[in-house]
Amino acid sequence: MGKINFLSLIVFILLFSMNSFGDDDFDDFEDEVEIKNIYDPFESYNRSMTSFNDSLYIDVLKPIDSVYKTITTQGMRNSVSNFFNNIYFPMHFVNNLLQLKIDGMFIESGRFVINSTIGIFGLFDPAKSQFGLYPHKEDFGQTLGYYGVGGGPHIVLPFFGPSNLRDLFSMLPDAAVSPIDYTQRSWWTITNTWTGLFTIKAIEKLNNISLYSTQYEQIRKDAVDLYPYLRDIYEQKRDEEIRK
């Protein structure tokens, strides 16, 4: 195990606070979310953690985001997002396979080949723009949900943001097939040290914030009570992803 670079660790932790707002289906749920009375045994803790994560965003991440946007263009930020979507092909492929979504497996395989070559290592997405192959993103939380495993209690993670018991557990098997790793394993990995892991995840999360901070700002403005609004956006979004 490599030696942890302390600065990289701090940046990595900070940038994960917006983890749940880095999905390109985010807009589909912002206007449709319904606040519901649901079983929420960790509500007191979740509210405190939501306030912590929100303060972290306002005081730390937002200024970083402002600087990042001044030194990059929208096109550059889109290319970074495309790159990360492309390298997560193993996770998407495996979870399509586990759900027996054969079409999804082949489409994700085709997207990976096209975008890794014509799309210049995934920086561009000609698979979608030129060939009409749209992403079939699947993770292990969706796989469990597909087979009837409920989300369980909602849990707001420090720095990571909204989640639930099922999706929290699912981070482990997804990490096993992620190309971003800190171990010396011999299959599909582009990093094998803690420093490499933290650095590339920091870049990914900073870029996600730059793409979706406007939506989060709008939610903060519109929500009378921020915690249940974010909770229900997350849970409804995950339910819809599982039904697809």
Helix content: 55-70%
Distance between the termini: 39 Å
Computed CA radius of gyration, to the nearest angstrom: 18 Å
Number of strands: 2
Unreliable spans are 1-22
Number of helical regions: 11
H and E string: HHHHHHHHEEHHH
Range of strand content: under 5%
Number of separate structural domains: 1
Order of strands in the sheet with most strands: 1-2
Instruction: Give the overall shape, derived from the CA principal axes.
Output: globular
Question: Helix/strand/pairing class, anyone?
Answer: mainly alpha
Mean pLDDT: 86
Report the oligomer.
single chain
If you had to describe this structure to a student in words, what would you say it looks like?
With 244 residues, the protein is mainly alpha-helical. The protein has one domain. Helix content is 63%, strand content 3%. The chain has eleven helices and two strands, in the order ααααααααββααα. A two-stranded antiparallel ribbon has the order 1-2. The longest helix is centred in the N-terminal third of the chain and has 29 residues, at 43-71. The model is unreliable at 1-22 (pLDDT under 50).
Features:
244 residues; 3% strand
List the helices and strands and how they pair.
Elements: H1 6-15, H2 27-30, H3 43-71, H4 74-87, H5 89-98, H6 102-117, H7 126-129, H8 140-146, E1 154-157, E2 161-164, H9 165-176, H10 194-222, H11 226-243
Antiparallel strand pairs: 1-2
Helix pairs in contact: 1-10, 3-10, 4-10, 5-6, 8-9, 8-11
Q: Short description, anyone?
A:
The protein has 244 residues and is mainly alpha-helical. The protein has helices at residues 6-15, 27-30, 43-71, 74-87, 89-98, 102-117, 126-129, 140-146, 165-176, 194-222, 226-243; strands at 154-157, 161-164.
